[in-house]
Amino acid sequence: MTTSARLVLVPLACLVLLASACASADTATDGDSSSSATSATDVEVAALFADGALTADPITVDCTLENGSETTCYQFEVDSLSTAVDSDGPYCPATTSDVGGIWVWDGEDPGLYALDEDFWDLMSAQGYEFADENGDVTIVDPAGGAPSSSTTENSCLQATPDDSYHLQVLIPTTPELLDEATDLSTISQVGLAFDGVTIFGDAPSVGDTGGLPALDACGGHIDPSGYYHWHFGAESIQSNLDAAGANVSCAIEQDNEAAVAFSYDGYVIYGSEEDGAVPTDLDECGGHVSDTEEFGEVYHYHLSTDSPNLPVCRVGASATGNLTSPDGEGISLPNGSGGGNGAPAGGPPAGGQPGRDE
Fold it and tell me: SS3 letters for 232-299?
């Protein structure tokens, strides 16, 4: 987005300082609506986003939150494939001797791995068959289509991109705390990154589906519906890759202290560090109240040093219909308020296709 396209919206009330939270990082989850509040002011909401991330000026619209509250939300519009990031992969390697993207393995010897020869050897030793006798990896489009090589017991999943539509995201202008934090588990809706890419929780386990939905080196991939989305906070992922010994690099500029995204409850997500160190006073969702460069002393989340590095829960209510498309009902998108959706029920036969929203 050009500078001339950026506009000042109403004051960024979504970044609220709960006065009682100053005494304890846990206050953000106590649901005490009697706490006094001050809001950040003079913030250009559109200017938080990278150039080209938004396809239209943000607007404020009426919306309903998952707790039934009638309020207002910022409506952001983005491309299905953001021009602010490289969504070309690599994802699945063609052969076991090639290097593809990455994966967070949750079986025996769990951890963050590059999809390289050592990883496929590990899978083979644990009884998983992703490649044929020639070392050709079976690659399957989870939206349908024939595998790339002879079918093996398991497959590497790589969806076909579709840049023909837009997404609309609703973010509350003023957060409303829930009585209990919402778990952000497998394929949960987490938020909208300032590069214009939506963020989801853990991708489904190979143990549940038989297929491995490969991520690129920055932690994103193509949904079966064709849009690119994150399963990591990309601006902090290199620390995770280096710690895991994964021999791949994310090309996105790394900044472990940057403001990187809106959570769907309206609070901002920052990188894993603050003032050069990982904060030690974070609540169960990875949030706390502290001074920020952009908004002063407010509640916000931090990416973690775990893999994936996203917040594991959120403290506030998200909007119903928070992820839609203005381009027609034929586009398959998640429904609901962005909470924990869980893994696809049952999963497909080994080597088959997983459910939507990998």
Answer: CCHHHHHHHHHHHCCCCCCCCCCCCCCEEEEECCCCEEECCCECCECCCCCCCCCEEEEEECCCEEEE
CA-wise closest residue to 144 among 323, 328, 332: 332
d(CA 318, CA 300): 15
pLDDT at 142 over 60: yes
**Per-residue pLDDT tens for 70-124?**
999 999 999 999 999 999 999 999 999 999 999 999 999 999 999 999 999 999 9
Task: Evaluate whether 1 touches 49 at the Cβ level (below 8 Å).
Answer: yes
CA separation for the pair 121, 116 (Å, rounded): 9
Amino acid at the residue 49: F
All residues at 6 or more sequence positions from 23 whose CB lies less than 8 Å from its CB, including other chains = none
Write the pLDDT tens digit of every residue in 317-348.
Answer: 999 999 999 997 767 787 545 454 333 222 22
Torsion over CA: 148, 150, 155, 156 (sign): negative
Around 12, how many Cα atoms within 13 Å sit in the side-chain half-sphere? 23
Nearest of 323, 283, 303, 60 to residue 180 by alpha carbon: 283
Phi-psi region of 31 (alpha: psi -120 to 50; beta: other; left: phi over 0): left
Structure tokens that stand for 214 in this block:
């490969």
pLDDT at res. 151? 75
Residue 183 neighbours by CB under 8 Å, 6+ apart = 312, 313, 339, 340
Round to whole Å and give the CA distance between 347 and 260: 32
Q: For the chain, what are the domain ranges?
A: 40-88+160-324
pLDDT score recorded for residue 145: 65
Quote the CA–CA distance of 326 and 80 in Å, as a whole number: 11
CA separation for the pair 264, 65 (Å, rounded):
10
Distance CA 220, CA 223 (A): 9
Exposed, middle or buried: residue 254 (CB in 10 Å: 0-12, 13-18, 19+)? middle
Structural element, H or E, at residue 358: none
**Is 28:315 a contact under the CB 8 Å cutoff?**
yes
